[in-house]
Amino acid sequence: MKRIAKFYKVSFEQFKEGLLDTFPDTDLEKIESIYDSIKLPKRATRGSAGYDFYTPIHIQLRPGETTKVPTGVRVEMEEDWVLKCYPRSGLGFKFRLQLNNTVGIIDSDYFHSDNEGHIFAKITNDSNEGKVMLVEAGTGFMQGIFVEYGITVDDDVETVRNGGLGSTTK
């Protein structure tokens, strides 16, 4: 098995900025304890392909509601690899949990972005059965799978990323 990546926490300052952007009413005195409780992604079993991402905060979504989750996590990986993020199977099955971009793509050069490569997930409870989705802090909500990729023989891109979502099309 190839070992091609390592997860890290983003800095406290970066996490605080991301958390307050989405949850501006968060008690400032609790942010440090939320940050300290961030769990790095890990596989549940030897046979698991996906690394479970854990929400650092309590999430409650009614059907049709959306929120952005600051994971507090970044990943350093070898070139020619990508981390693809999906909802955890159980949440997708029970609540039709959706990532708003269908599949999150974390490129290898994202690690060095101005936001430290902070991985966010924008999720929606797409339940058509009226189910409210509750995910307690510290519970897995998304999974990431590392995939090797190739490029065309005539590819000559030299551009370096400096940003997150949509930064490569600016």
Q: What do we call the CATH homologous superfamily? A: Deoxyuridine triphosphatase (dUTPase)
Please describe the biggest sheet, giving its number of strands, its sense, and whether it closes into a barrel: 4 strands, antiparallel
- Radius of gyration, CA atoms, in whole angstroms: 16 Å
Summarize model confidence as the mean pLDDT: 93
In the predicted model, the low-confidence regions spanning at least 5 consecutive residues are none
Number of helices: 3
Distance from first to last alpha carbon: 37 Å
CATH topology term: Deoxyuridine 5'-Triphosphate Nucleotidohydrolase, Chain A
- Any idea what the shape is? globular
Could you give the count of β-strands? 11
CATH class: Mainly Beta
**What order do the helices and strands follow?**
EHHEEEEEHEEEEE
Number of domains: 1
Structural class per helix/strand content? alpha+beta
The helix content is 10-25%
Strand order of the largest sheet: 2-11-6-8
Q: What can you tell me about this protein's structure?
A:
The longest helix has 11 residues, at 12-22. This protein has one domain: Deoxyuridine triphosphatase (dUTPase) (Deoxyuridine 5'-Triphosphate Nucleotidohydrolase, Chain A, Distorted Sandwich). The model has no long low-confidence stretch (mean pLDDT 93). The termini are far apart. Helices cover 14% and strands 32% of the residues. It contains three helices and eleven strands; from the N terminus they run βααβββββαβββββ. With 170 residues, it is of the alpha+beta class. Strands 2-11-6-8 form a four-stranded antiparallel β-sheet. A three-stranded antiparallel β-sheet has the order 4-9-7. A two-stranded antiparallel sheet has the order 1-5. The protein is globular and about 50 Å long.
